[in-house]
């Protein structure tokens, strides 16, 4: 009964948010806010300490916010943002309900993870990156257990070296989707905060940087493990049919999103929120056993949704509350007064950009979610009278900081998901295995910042 109630609230919240963003009726706006509040209440029993702490911080900020001038208006805007973020991650992450049951996904995942040593890092990192584009955090939940399974020796012991290299490759590949993929929360957040940017530049620069960082990750892996004999795994046959099926799913997601953008003028994030659940249901229906009717297969989706409801609710609550906190914090603090005193006239644009990833990554070390800092910094930046850098480059720098925090911060969502699935401590995944790689990436990013600001 509890999971059924939670699943119902998740559906209601999604419908209300979509209605608020398209129809524009105030009833939908109020309904989406109440829906998010209902989600927080219904999901408390399955929440972790992280969600409880975020909720406590949100309540405290709400009390302070409502005492300010125009407090109710600012509160309503923060709640609206929280509901939107919660619905976005919910609808996109729900793709994993179909993905986890897909033999094609499992086949491709096993094939990527069992490549010869020379191509294993690239296969795992690229696979995590591409699967992450349309499965989001579902790619992490899917591939992490496959890596642990592939690292098992015949006697049942674990090849810890292989496990470490593959987990690191997964994190390093997955994190960089935040630079460009419209299916990620980072792009939804930043495009909500910054509207006057060059989207073509973001995508092209993000893809090019992602490729560069994955290659750097491969070279770093080889240097780090030089002189050691890698484990050899017998690769399965090339999964041509499975790859074709996944390409159809991915292509359908992209094409339908583009159609909605062109025909209705929706943003990328809003288009994806309509398309993702449709693709999820169609993909789920296509997995029916031979001889099973489509209606009968779809009838099993509700039990599957109920089974996934606690996990989906935790992600939606955590990210929604984080968005609320970031927005409310910017409204509670006298940002106009503070930023009016800041003079960035003499600050080089590249230096301003270089500071942003540091702030986001350092915040992650003290349990501040990247989304809190990105939303807060985004609000602060917009109050600065004269920006020292191009807004598009600022969005890129914030995305880069968020990406680095994914493998350098023990409190990042991707790290916590892997830790929960594999029982590997988050600090080992980040500080122990990937912090030095993060420092190398940061140095490279500073050079990129200098180049794009000079152009």
Strand tally: 0
Largest sheet: none
Roughly what is the average pLDDT, rounded to an integer? 89
The assigned structural class equals mainly alpha
Characterize the overall form: globular
Q: What key attributes describe this structure?
A:
455 residues; mainly alpha; 77% helix; 0% strand
Describe the structure.
It is a single chain. This protein is an all-alpha fold and 455 residues long. Helices cover 77% and strands 0% of the residues. It contains 22 helices and no strands. The longest helix has 32 residues, at 301-332. It is globular. The model has no long low-confidence stretch (mean pLDDT 89).
Give a topology summary.
Elements: H1 2-22, H2 26-42, H3 49-65, H4 71-93, H5 95-99, H6 103-113, H7 117-135, H8 137-150, H9 160-175, H10 185-193, H11 199-224, H12 240-264, H13 268-286, H14 294-299, H15 301-332, H16 335-340, H17 349-365, H18 370-381, H19 391-408, H20 413-422, H21 426-432, H22 435-454
